[in-house]
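Incident review: delayed structure delivery

Summary: a single-chain prediction request sat in the queue longer than the usual turnaround. Root cause was a stuck worker, restarted by the on-call engineer. No data loss occurred. The affected request and its eventual output are reproduced below so the record is complete for anyone auditing the incident later.

Affected input:
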Amino acid sequence: MNGRILLLILSLLVAGPVMAQPSLPDESKYANSLIGLTILGSPALGMSSVSDYTNGVTLNHNTLQINVSLGLTWSIQVRALDDLRYQSYSIPASSIAVQATGLGSRPEIFLRTTNQTVASGLATSLLSAILPLRYRAIGGSTFLQPAGSYTTTLLFSFSAQ
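Output delivered after worker restart:
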C-alpha cells in the first residue's frame, strides 16, 4: 500500500425546483412559502494507509444548505448515478454511506442508484440551515483497486408539502 492513494470524489447535483410553492387551501396566505436547496461543495474521501483501506474513512462535510418556510414538511433524497469509476475500474456506490448529522439524528444509508431519504422534517419555524453530511467509505477488499480518483455523481432531490 505504500505510495498508493485512492481518492473518492462525489460530484453533486440538485434535482427539483430551486423554489417551489406548495398547493395549500388559502394560497394567498402562503404566497411566500418556499423550499430551496443549495450545494455548498463536493466531498472527497482520501485513502492513503493500510488502516484506511482496511477500516474505511469518514468525512464530515457541509454539503447542503436548506431553506424551508414555516409549517412545511420537507424531505431530501439522494442517489448515486452510478458506481465510483476510474478508467476501467469501479467501486460499488453501496460501499459509501451517507448520514445527515445537523438536523437531529438520522439513520445512515448506503448509496444506491434509487432515491433514499437522507433527511426530512417539519419546519416548526422558518428553517435556513446548513445540512452537514457524514460520508463513510466502509473499507475492505472492495477498495483494493489501483490508485486513482474514483468519482460518481450524487443527485439530491427535495420536496415539501
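Verification: The longest helix spans residues 50-55.
Action items: add queue-age alerting; document worker restart procedure.
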